[in-house]
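Q: I'm a student working through a structural biology exercise. My instructor gave each of us a protein and asked us to get a predicted structure, then write a short paragraph describing it. Mine is Lipoprotein. I'm not confident about reading structure output yet, so if you can add a plain explanation after the tokens, that would really help. Here is the sequence I was given:
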Amino acid sequence: MSLRHAERSPEPRRLSRAAITLLIAACAEGGSSVGGASAGAQPPRVAVVDSVRVPLVDSAEAARRATVQDTMPLPPRDGTPRDTAGRDTARGDTTPRPARLGPKSGDRHPAFKGVDLALDSLWPVKNAPAPLPGSILPAKRIVAFYGNPKSKRMGILGEFPADEMLRKLDAEVAAWNAVDPAHPVQPALHVIVLVADAQPGPSGKYRTRHDSAMIEKVYGWARSRNALLFVDLQVGQSTLQAELPWIEKFLVRPDVHLGIDPEFSMKNGGIPGRRIGTYDAADINYASRFLSNLVEKHGLPPKILVVHRFTPAGVTHADKIALDPNVQIVMDMDGFGPPWMKRDTYWRDIKREPVQFAGWKQFTKRKNDKPPTSRAEILRLWPVPLYIQIQ
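A: Happy to help. First, here is the predicted structure for Lipoprotein. I'll explain a few features afterward.
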């Protein structure tokens, strides 16, 4: 994942000169920043890691920018003060925007339970269908290792040899079971099977499909731990309509589920790594219907759909996402940074826009999460995340 947050700067003149730098770090841990999509600009440099092409960008800088500042009103150009309530241009509505919460919010952060009772009352989601037999949520917590086995830089799933990675998964499962025995852990592996690319490639779609042999290998690892498998799509300039049939043969298995990443959905044009992509509720509803049809056709237990999110504009019209008893939707907060920064993002993009279930991403690299948010702090959030992704 991650352009992992765009920031509104208090210096609009600098922004106009820089054309608003957007960064991506889901598939790379370090490198140089990538400029905005200006006419005649060169495509971002790409690193070949094992056999995966990865845009070279600076995730540490993206983490620094992962704040709620994009919900703040910009100061007027004449420098006079402005009230903290204003129009939320990211959401395209007239919702008053609270000022940045920041590191001083501490224990009174509204992402925590009991701080903003009105916001707390939105969860659990009132119109959610009751879980069907075979549903995993909300009875269990999913703990998933994320990445691609062909790259050590895209996440923990590929960072270590398989045996070592699986031992680390065992330890993570045990740790979560110890801190919250009320929600026994369902382990999972979350593999990126369609990787966004900074180059168009043979398809011209700025994405690379990985072969079935790789997916089967990771599926075998998951089976060895009685774990779920999530197959994740970064569609680039392709679409869910074009890519979902390609992985249907895996999704018909009862223990295989789906992840989709709006950051790399360039439906409005652009090159992955140059700008943050987006999905609308209509796109998410399409993916949900696709899964629901498979459940009905093949008599499967309910599927889980994980939607990554770290900016307001990354998912538009979230209130229009339709819930289906055959599909459990997780909105996964996958930004990074210090704990206060991640709480801000969780509050802004997950808690304030309820869909169904909530997720939280942890990074294993301290340059991304510094310091990491503790499990105890995560359990103080409301809603409590029931999907934990480790990258």
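A: Here are two points you could use in your paragraph. The CA atoms of residues 140 and 364 lie 23 Å apart. The first strand starts at residue 46 and ends at 49. It's a good idea to check both against the output above yourself.
Q: Great, thank you!
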